[in-house]
Amino acid sequence: MSIPEWYTGSDRSGEVAQGIEAIIAKMDEHQADHQDIRRLRDLQSVETEVNWRAFLLSLIGTIHYDLKEQDQAAEALESALMDFKPYLSTFDEVLSVYCQTCYTAGVLFYEREQYAVAAPYLLRCLPYLHEVYENAYVGDIYSLLTICLNMTDDVEGALVFAEAAAFARQYDCESLENLMIAYVATGQSQKASEVFQVLSERCRQSDNFERILDFARRELGETGVVN
Fold first, then answer.
1. Do the Cβ atoms of 146 and 182 come closer than 8 Å?
2. What local confidence, expressed as pLDDT, does residue 225 receive?
3. What is the mean pLDDT of residues 164-189?
4. Of 220, 215, 218, nearest to 194 (Cα)?
5. Average pLDDT over all residues of the chain
6. How far apart are CA 51 and CA 31, in angstroms?
7. What is the rounded average pLDDT of the residues 146-173?
8. Cβ-count burial of 51 within 10 angstroms (0-12 exposed, 13-18 middle, 19+ buried)?
9. 144 vs 18, 62, 141, 153, 213, CA distance in Å?
10. Do the Cβ atoms of 61 and 101 come closer than 8 Å?
11. Whether 224 contacts 216, CB under 8 Å
12. What gap in Å lies between CA 169 and CA 73, rounded to an integer?
């Protein structure tokens, strides 16, 4: 069995590479299940290269997450991230799964409202984001970081990502709302009011505009009139 170029692990039989391809295809179709988790465990017994073993464990964690098995997902994802070794040459080939693992772990703990735990996982992928993701995905990660850092009282850090998210997401309503909140949190009321004016022009038909307006009235004394 031939070994595909993308696979740089230890298995020369082709079993691991073939298994990865088959399972990822099922994951893409949201059809992966416990049978695939068992197969990945079996492949781990074959694979000896450190980063590719972490790759396999990451897939296990992601399948658990997709199956709504939060505790098992958290255990597998956190263990995988502990096992990755970025200083080895094989890290480049597993980088996309490393970043996806950081993102999934971050989202999992964000959904649990464990913001202080979520933020470091999201931050770990930042140096590699533009190697892996398109701008829209990058904007989502920045938005999650904005909320996590705000919720942990790192308002200056939250502002950095609020501005970046608004830029990456082309100033959509959600990112502008988060930017307004971040400016208020850092005492930059003039900028917050200016962002509110943009929101008033662009987002009046948004389902969340009443919430935006309530915040602006309470924190900025805005009336909702566009200047």
1. yes
2. 59
3. 93
4. 220
5. 93
6. 25
7. 93
8. buried
9. 35, 19, 5, 14, 22
10. yes
11. yes
12. 29
DSSP assignments along the chain, one per residue:
-PPPTT--SS--SSHHHHHHHHHHHHHHTT---HHHHHHHHHHHHH---HHHHHHHHHHHHHHHHHTT-HHHHHHHHHHHHHH--TTSTTHHHHHHHHHHHHHHHHHHHHHTT-HHHHHHHHHHTGGGHHHH--HHHHHHHHHHHHHHHHHTT-HHHHHHHHHHHHHHTTS-HHHHHHHHHHHHHTT-HHHHHHHHHHHHHH-TTSTTHHHHHHHHHHHH---S---
First to last CA, the chain: 68
pLDDT tens digits for 86-117?
999 999 999 999 999 999 999 999 999 999 99
Architecture of 1-130 per CATH? Alpha Horseshoe (1.25)
Structure tokens at 46: 């074959």
Q: How far apart are the C-alpha atoms of 180 and 96, rounded to whole Å?
A: 32
Q: What's the predicted TM-score (pTM) here?
A: 0.85
Enumerate the domain spans of the chain: 1-130, 134-220
From the CB of residue 211, how many other CB atoms can be counted at a distance below 10 Å?
11
Res. 64 pLDDT band, cuts 50 70 90: very high
Q: Is the pLDDT of residue 80 over 60?
A: yes
Decide: 46 and 16 in contact? Cβ < 8 Å.
Answer: yes
